[in-house]
Amino acid sequence: MIAVITGDIINSQHADTEVWITRLKNLLENWGSSPLAWEIYRGDEFQFKCSIDEVFWRFLAIKSLIRSQENLDVRIAIGIGEENFSSEKITESNGTAYVNSGRLLNDLKSDGHTVSIKTSSESVDRDLNILLKWSSKDFDSWTVATAEIIHEMIMNQDITQEDLARKFAISQSSVSQRLKRANYELIVETNQYFRKKISEL
Predict the structure, then answer these.
(1) Distance between CA 43 and CA 53 in Å, rounded?
(2) What is the C-alpha to C-alpha distance for residues 23 and 69, in angstroms, rounded to an integer?
(3) Burial tier of 65 (Cβ tally within 10 Å: 0-12, 13-18, 19+)
């Protein structure tokens, strides 16, 4: 089984494309090469694949990256399933993971939520989607400053609060307050629960 994330940028027409697209490409390149593992297409849509263990952390890395830019957000559809055909371009590959993710993005555009998951199990989908709806209440309201801190924590889990304070030229207590406001410890627990539920498929 693999995980496929299909997403699109919300409010992309009101932002400097060169800025967000460069940062998104740089992020995705950490996880594989384009167009085999990821691709940005139709201006503001993208798709990439990863292991099922990593998918929640990957989703949050993208979410925090995009939220760290004024007025931008991202819709993300997570599909878990098989890859029956692997092309040189991810957008031409196929299997249940791709189908689940692509169809789900269309559903998200109509229901107003920013993240959802589709697997082979209705009960797993129900549990994880309730979790995602609650947690995205937080994620969708991150300030730019909070999103920046979260993104650094996700991308470098060995980083200390002192390192973050130096990077952002703020006090260590300000870093601590931002992490508390973002419920970072709860995010880590949520990632562990997410991985456990998906491993049961």
Answers:
(1) 29
(2) 10
(3) buried
